[in-house]
């Protein structure tokens, strides 16, 4: 016992003054709006990061939705204890840009500003310049790359090839007209499905089709050249899409589950072969074909477009990781290290293979090409290729989530109650602009 005490005293004597035996780790709290297998994967990556960089401890906490994660972040900021990173979805980008903390300063800080001209942070290579252009362009506002893109998707279509073959449909439809013609053949089958196609009643489809038709959803260049002060929910392009949707529903080609934003119900309709076509998110580009592989072959293709307007590009969906403002230097450094390491080529490729979200960096995509991944799973490349065809960005609009619901509600009236398309969209447009005006009075008073 005396020898142990003696050795301990010697150790204390050789340690320089001011150095502790066990230095405290810098905590980096990251709040993620997932609660399923995607959260599990994120926690696994955090544990790996913590082993590689023992001076830091990334702590992942999951939430049930983007809005809950954002609300809790704002509350934590008021209490002086915000997380380092918050996960928030693309439609709320303007709200994230407008959010302020209790001191009146912006709630979030531009990742590009925080990184500066560094190409690596404590040995972690910076990947911001390698992010695919569709995501980089979307999350760039006022010339500043604000947040780190992560789970990024686009709209795609799944086709049941057994049904198409039985109906004599030789090629997967690429346009509205081709899809309608295919449905005419499919609905003529004696033992075919009761309906031909489905997709969720969600405003994302309006936003996508407006981009495809080369039309803006809001003024000032979709809010990219100045703040959005007017939305165009009843534009000719919006009316054309809603009318086509209604026509397909009236013919029995489209089936509405009767539930708004019904991702699960529409997916089930396709997987149970109640329909031949499903328009859906590319986040499930690998999952859905795997789910049905023992029953029928499901092929992934681009979202059909309006041939009368030509094709002008698709936009992204998904979410991004925001760096909270006002962090101390050590925490911000750890957060930036994790954000860049988290989307390094290996992790970005693995995330894509697990979920179907696009590989978020060009290097990750190219590595997957070289590894033969897209030859093995060709549908996994569709979203990347679609987004690369014609560069375009979606709209930045304040109170976008509530504004989205005005279109969703209008389509509900159109599909369920047979309301006139133009009248429904005029009403939606009026409500949407009232919501936008109220928002701008709060965040951008003249």
Key features?
2 domains; 20 helices; 14% strand; disordered N terminus; D-Maltodextrin-Binding Protein, domain 2; single chain; 14 strands; alpha+beta; 4-stranded mixed beta sheet; 6-stranded mixed beta sheet; 446 residues
What does this structure look like?
The chain has about 450 residues and is of the alpha+beta class. It folds into two domains: about 25-155 and about 315-390, D-Maltodextrin-Binding Protein, domain 2 (3-Layer(aba) Sandwich); about 155-315 and about 400-445, 3-Layer(aba) Sandwich (D-Maltodextrin-Binding Protein, domain 2), CATH 3.40.190. It contains 20 helices and 14 strands. The protein has helices at about 1-15, 35-50, 65-80, 95-100, 110-115, 135-140, 160-165, 175-185, 205-210, 220-225, 235-250, 265-270, 285-290, 330-340, 345-355, 360-370, 375, 380-390, 400-415, 420-445, and strands spanning about 25-30, 55-60, 85-90, 110, 120, 125, 140, 145, 150-155, 155-160, 195-200, 275-280, 300, 315-325. Strands 1, 2, 3, 4, 9 and 14 form a six-stranded mixed β-sheet that branches. Strand 5 and strand 6 form a beta hairpin. Helix 7 (about 160-165) crosses helix 8 (about 175-185), helix 15 (about 345-355) crosses helix 16 (about 360-370) and helix 19 packs antiparallel against helix 20. The longest helix has 23 residues, at about 420-445. It is globular, with a radius of gyration of 25 Å. The N and C termini lie far apart (about 75 Å). The model is unreliable at about 1-20 (pLDDT under 50).
């Amino acid at each position: 016992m005396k020898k142990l005490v003696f050795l301990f005293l010697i150790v204390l004597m050789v340690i320089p003054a001011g150095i502790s035996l066990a230095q405290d780790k810098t905590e980096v709290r990251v709040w993620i709006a997932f609660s399923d297998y995607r959260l599990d994967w994120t926690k696994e990556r955090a544990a790996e990061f913590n082993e590689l960089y023992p001076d830091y401890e990334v702590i992942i906490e999951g939430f049930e939705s983007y809005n809950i994660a954002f609300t809790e972040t704002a509350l934590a900021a008021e209490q002086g204890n915000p997380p380092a990173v918050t996960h928030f979805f693309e439609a709320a980008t303007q709200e994230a840009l407008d959010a302020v903390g209790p001191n009146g300063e912006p709630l979030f800080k531009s990742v590009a500003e925080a990184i500066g001209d560094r190409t690596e942070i404590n040995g972690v290579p910076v990947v911001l310049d390698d992010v695919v252009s569709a995501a980089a362009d979307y999350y760039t506002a006022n010339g500043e790359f604000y947040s780190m893109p992560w789970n990024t998707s686009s709209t795609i279509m799944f086709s049941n090839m057994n049904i198409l073959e039985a109906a004599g449909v030789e090629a997967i439809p690429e346009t509205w007209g081709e899809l309608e013609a295919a449905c005419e053949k499919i609905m003529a089958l004696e033992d075919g499905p009761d309906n031909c196609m489905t997709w969720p009643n969600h405003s994302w489809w309006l936003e996508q089709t407006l981009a495809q038709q080369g039309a803006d959803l809001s003024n000032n260049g979709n809010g990219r050249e100045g703040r959005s002060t007017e939305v165009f929910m009843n534009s000719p392009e919006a009316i054309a899409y809603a009318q086509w949707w209604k026509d397909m529903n009236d013919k029995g080609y489209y089936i509405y589950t009767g539930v708004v934003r019904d991702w699960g119900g529409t997916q089930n309709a396709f997987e149970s072969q109640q329909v031949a076509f499903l328009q859906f998110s590319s986040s499930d580009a690998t999952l859905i074909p795997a789910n049905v592989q023992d029953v029928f072959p499901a092929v992934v293709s681009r979202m059909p477009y309006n041939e009368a307007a030509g094709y002008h590009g698709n936009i992204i969906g998904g979410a991004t990781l925001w760096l909270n403002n006002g962090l101390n230097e050590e925490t911000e450094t750890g957060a930036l290290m994790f954000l860049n390491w988290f989307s390094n080529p290996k992790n970005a490729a693995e995330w894509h293979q697990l979920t179907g979200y696009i590989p978020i960096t060009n290097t990750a995509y190219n590595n997957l090409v070289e590894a033969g991944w897209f030859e093995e799973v060709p549908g996994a490349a569709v979203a990347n290729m679609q987004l690369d065809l014609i560069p375009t960005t979606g709209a930045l609009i304040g109170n976008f989530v509530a504004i989205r619901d005005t279109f969703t509600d209008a389509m509900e009236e159109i599909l369920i109650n047979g309301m006139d398309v133009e009248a429904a969209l005029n009403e939606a447009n009026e409500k949407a602009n009232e919501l936008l005006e109220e928002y701008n009075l709060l965040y951008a008073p003249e």
